[in-house]
Amino acid sequence: MSQGIINLDDGWNNEIKVKAIDRLEAILNSGLDKQQSQLFSPTEYVQTYTTCYNMCTQKSPYNWSQQLYQRHGETIRNYLSGTVLPALRDKHDIFLLKELTARWGNHEIMNKWMQRFFMYLDRYYVKHHSLPSLMDAGLGHFKALIFDEVRRDVANAMIDLINQERDGAVIERGLVKSCVRLFEAMGMGSLEAYAMAFEEPLLTATREYYARRSANWIDGNSTPDYLIKAEAALEAERERVGAYLNSSTEAKLVAVVEEEILEKREGTLLEKEGSGLRVLLTNDKREDLSRIFRLFSKKDEWLLPISSIVREHITGMGNDCINRREARVENAEKEKNEDPEFVRELLALHDKYTLLVNTEFSGNALFQKALKDAFQEFVNRDVGKHRNSDLMSSFCDRILKTGGEKLSDEEVETFLEKTVQLFSYLVDKDLFAEIYRNQLAKRLLNQRSASDDHERLMISKLKQRCGSQFTGKMEGMLNDLAIGEDHQQDFEQHYSAQVAGSKQVDFSVQVLTTGYWPTFPAVDLHLPPEMTRCHQIFSDYYQEKNSKRRLAWVWGLGNTSVRGGWGKKSYDLQVTTLQAVALLAFNAGGEVSPTYTFDALRERLGIPEEILKRVMHSLSCGKHKVIEKEPKSNTIKATDSFRAAPKFQCKMLKVRIPMASLEDSQNTKRVEEDRTVSIEAACVRIMKARKTLPHQQLVAEVLAQLSFFKPNPKVIKRRIEALIDREYLERDPDTPNTYRYLA
């Protein structure tokens, strides 16, 4: 069906404007329900759309696409400038926001229907001429004519409402949220308008608001109360963003609040008199400490002063433990090489602050370092004659030996683990190893170890901390005893065959590998016939089995059970081999016991004077006096004389007679020798790899390699000089303070 040409003015004035645009504006201005789905019936809408379609599809010069696009824009601009803008100009504060949101709602409806009426323009004309779409053009007109005019007043009104809410007032959150959506829409697909027109003023106002609030809080509240308010404020700001602000604002808003109420007030809060961090630590206020960490954990630089105070506090607590030990040492008549009370204090302190670091401070690396630095400082502060490494080793000895601490297996394991943790802070770990190895040797050789499993457990824990090099000798000691059990069975069969038909003495020998065990003092003595025969049988047996090995007898470590009779009563005397040799010298075989002067006894036994004094002191001056001394006193002199006690009595039939140890638990000379070897070996390894190094760099790398002790740089320098003398290194003739490796 043919159709006549539609003139521009006829189509616009008689059809589009009258039937659609004027009616749409009237509906919007009347305040009718704009949420209804159909402001125009389908027939009315199709009629207007068809008119626009026909006007855009007529052949030139009657194609009115350009003119309709222009009039579409003019219609919206005229409505905005003539109706909307005047309605906003006399409004302020919350009334401005309400009017704006209402007018924005009207504009969205108008823009939608205008886009529907002129939809054919979007499909062809807009695309072909690269023009803004009808919807975007409508938004652009609102932004240029309305938003840019009122945005500053609107942003200020929104911020005023937000500040009222911060002060506790109840506001229309939906109104603020609608305004936020308007700002977002004005970005035309981006958040630029929202960020520049609203977010930036909001952040500035927030900074000013919390600067005032924090000043009031800091003056009138303790540190815990201040932080409770700060935490609540931060949570409120996060909730506020979720309720009506754009999610991109949260990080920026929280950062501004944190800066004002936390970063700028941190120093004052931590040092506040009566409630600062030191007071909280002293009073063990765990909830408040946890809150401090939560609030300041966002940046490491905020945590640094906190971790520093924690380190100082732990160091102070540790030094108090050291001072209490120092007081005990000064008041004691004789200082002992063990102080279990002191070690238990350190273990309890470590438990307390390890728990604090792992829970309240979430195991943060800065606080782990603070804990480590603090314990390293006071654990290596020795007072008295015995070092802390000696006290720790002696504490382990009490736990692991029979007759020591009465603990369950679980308690033993727990104490060992805690002690190894404390050991890890020692600088002189090699000294601990030497002391521990000596005490381990005593437990093993004297059958005083409560459990082989516990011994191996302790060694495995040390191995995990320090590596196999650290525990190799200890493991070798345990292996010696395990292998010795198998060898002992073979020897017993051999021994029984050798002494068959004669009076048999129970006899066993433990073979030790020299490199594993501590160096024991060698004691020469004249064995009695009963022992000489046993000694010879084993020597022949061992040489036959191991012809390339040499036996060295350590008499000071032997144990003997000697049966002694006094009248009708007999006792089993549990003594050392040296004590047994001395006792057998007084054996009369039913006759009157002989009397010996000290010199005569020394000549008969062949035992050195100082050692013999210890032996005779244990037999004649101890609790069980099986030897009688003249004159009676508690010291042994060369002029004394001895004989078997004629009337010895004891309630127990098995009597243990202890004797003072012949060796010192700290072989510091051997430790120094081992350190010398370790320093020189490290120097050679480094120089072999580097060929040439300056002095300071070589010293630094040697210190980095030595994990078991930290030598003085002067000691390292002396070892370098020794290596130069032995031609491992040489000084660089061209560069001062530089060494070269000699291949």
UniProtKB/TrEMBL annotation:
Keywords carried by this UniProt record: Isopeptide bond, Ubl conjugation
Record-level GO BP terms: ubiquitin-dependent protein catabolic process
Superkingdom of source: Eukaryota
Start and end residues of each Cullin family profile domain: 387-620
GO molecular function: ubiquitin protein ligase binding
Family matches, as InterPro entries: Cullin, Cullin-like_AB, Cullin_CS, Cullin_homology, Cullin_homology_sf, Cullin_N, Cullin_neddylation_domain, Cullin_repeat-like_dom_sf
Pfam families assigned: Cullin, Cullin_AB, Cullin_Nedd8
SUPFAM superfamilies linked to this entry: Cullin homology domain, Cullin repeat-like, Winged helix' DNA-binding domain
GO cellular component, one term: cullin-RING ubiquitin ligase complex
Family of this protein: Belongs to the cullin family.
Annotated PANTHER family: CULLIN
Protein name: Cullin family profile domain-containing protein
